[in-house]
Amino acid sequence: MLGRLRSIAFDFYRRLETRQHPLLYLFLEITKQCNLSCRHCGSDCGREAGAKELSTESWLKIIEDIRDSFGNSVVLVLTGGEPLLHPELDRIAAHISKLSMRWGMVTNGQLLSESRLEQLTANRIESITVSLDGPRREYDQLRNRPGSFDKTFQAMKLIGQSSIPMSDVVTCVHPGNLDKLDATAEIILESGIPAWRLFRIFPSGRAAEHRELNLDYDKTWQMLRWIEANRPRLAQRGLKVGASCEGYLPFDFDRRVRDVPFFCRAGINFGAILCDGTVTGCSNNDPSFHQGNVLENNFRHIWETRFKEFRRRDWLAETNCADCEEVRRCRGGSIHLWKLGEKSPAFCYHRPVEDASNQQADS
């Protein structure tokens, strides 16, 4: 009964947030360049930017516009590519700090030296996320770079010993590292970073060319059951572990693998500005969900006048999800698993779906 009441209360909260859509986090993809060439990269990043990128002056103006439009409570998260490759990262970070805004960063850790971390701390970074996809062999294979594990682990130890208020590790789980989760947990515990989120790899960017990296339905649930079984043990040792924000799960089980029940906040509480100024709800969204460009309209205008596909989701009525008993609560799951016009998401935790790549050919 208590679980049912909590589920009802959360549904009410989600509807209220959707209606009011207060912006809480804004992801800024300050560069598409990356110093790795990972097999599973959803953005298909590389050493060359490969796309027109906004100038530093443009980013500074955008950040000021966000502060003027939404106040300084919005958390800015610098992403890439690899944000540490941006030649004026420190200038952007200092500007955010000068405006008394909160900010964080997502990094692969390859360039995170002690001096770089000191500079980030001086600019009042509040959160940092680093990726670790298993022990040395599995990590180096996925990242396409021998020796990359050692650099990332060194960065993790620096982060674990730092004064940054919030830090966590994300792991992209695939068939090659699914049986290495215990070993991965030990590595994270050794680093001192206190939180860990586990993701599936989804077929976007280069990952679409490596379908062997996708967990199938049964292996996905193997990952979830591992989280359920090991959360209490790891929490006692100082490591908070949970499933990522991807994918709807029935409420009672969801509470056993996540701290906060599933709610795709893309376009509701979360927004993203890509390196060329494109606006969307999440950096991983398909281009069919892009909402405009800050070079044509300011972000506030786009945020308040568009995003209906994220907030109303009327398009679900024309998909295979329409007859699902969970659709009212699920609302199609995570936006980044969809392309508008397709009948099914790329993956569903609730029931197996046909491979989305075959749908167009069959129609």
Walkthrough of the structure:
It is a single chain. This protein is of the alpha/beta class and 363 residues long. The chain contains 13 helices and ten strands. A ten-stranded mixed beta sheet has the order 7-6-5-4-3-2-1-8-9-10, covered by helices on one side. α7 (181-191) links the parallel β5 (166-173) and β6 (195-200). α2 (56-70) runs parallel beside α3 and α6 (148-160) packs across α7. The relative contact order is 0.12. Mean pLDDT is 92; it is low at 355-363.
Which helices and strands, and how do they pair?
Elements: H1 2-20, E1 25-29, H2 56-70, E2 75-79, H3 89-98, E3 102-107, H4 114-122, E4 127-131, H5 136-143, H6 148-160, E5 166-173, H7 181-191, E6 195-200, H8 217-236, E7 240-243, H9 251-257, E8 270-273, E9 278-280, E10 292-293, H10 299-305, H11 308-311, H12 327-330, H13 359-362
Parallel strand pairs: 1-2, 1-8, 2-3, 3-4, 4-5, 5-6, 6-7
Antiparallel strand pairs: 8-9, 9-10
Helix pairs in contact: 2-3, 6-7
Strand order in space, largest sheet:
7-6-5-4-3-2-1-8-9-10
- Overall mean pLDDT stands at 92
Principal-axes shape call? globular
Residue fraction in strands: 5-15%
Run of helices and strands:
HEHEHEHEHHEHEHEHEEEHHHH
Alpha plus pi helix count? 13
The radius of gyration is 20 Å
Short characterization:
With 363 residues, this protein is an alpha/beta fold. It is built from 13 helices and 10 strands.
